[in-house]
């Protein structure tokens, strides 16, 4: 027995080689970064993108200040940023800005809500009903080719020049994109989704709730986003053309009539900032709703 054990030990590999084989290859240090590190990098990337987006406005403001300070343009059409800032402070302290902005936003919100509800109903009708699509679809396709401002004379005759006419005009501005994108979103649902739902014997309500609506939701949100933008732009157009009442558009008109470029430029800045805020709010609401994922299988 001792002879056999000595013979087997003589045939064994060297001790170092055996240890290396038993231990296997050395561990790799290329582990994936932790989740927290990736989130921190994503936050830094978004911040850098935001700063890069601010580069052009900062450069434009610096050039504007230099041209105004050196009097390179000798015209009353060019005022300094300091004059615009002073005018903005006066408008804010006096309450004129708050009154004008609140009036414009109230009209925009009213027209957006009315037009969105009408667009969702009409778009759903055109999307689900073949009879409605054949009877109403051609008329709607013709209606949306008419310029929105072409309805101003008719609206002013029917509803006057007050807030009612402006809200009707804004409702039309919101109605068109919501209707078109709701109808297109319903039509774009893949046929395979519907066939699978029917194979599982979904009812029509379940089919709409758990299949068609979630699949069409991105297109519907695109229509709502465009309706928000169009209604804000139409707010200014309505206040320009239907001049009765107060609003940001009327503030711009007063500045141009009084040849006050500081007031005009301040109004333009307020319009751009408000549009940017509405855009950011719409994007945030959209991300929050999609993150909730309220739709699921029954």
From TrEMBL:
Keyword Aminoacyl-tRNA synthetase recorded: no
Main location: membrane
Residue ranges of the TM segments: 54-73, 109-131, 143-161, 167-186, 207-233, 263-282
Record-linked InterPro entries: MetI-like, MetI-like_sf
Keyword Nucleotide-binding part of the UniProt annotation: no
Membrane topology: Multi-pass membrane protein
Region (Disordered): 15-36
Cell compartments where the protein resides: Cell membrane
GO biological process, one term: transmembrane transport
Annotated Gene Ontology cellular component terms: plasma membrane
Keywords: Cell membrane, Membrane, Transmembrane, Transmembrane helix, Transport
Domain annotation ABC transmembrane type-1: ranges: 101-282
Entry coiled-coil feature ranges: none
Pfam families cross-referenced by the UniProt entry: BPD_transp_1
Family assignment from sequence similarity: Belongs to the binding-protein-dependent transport system permease family.
The protein's name: Sulfonate transport system permease protein
Natural source organism: Paraburkholderia susongensis
Lineage, top ranks: Bacteria, Pseudomonadati, Pseudomonadota, Betaproteobacteria, Burkholderiales
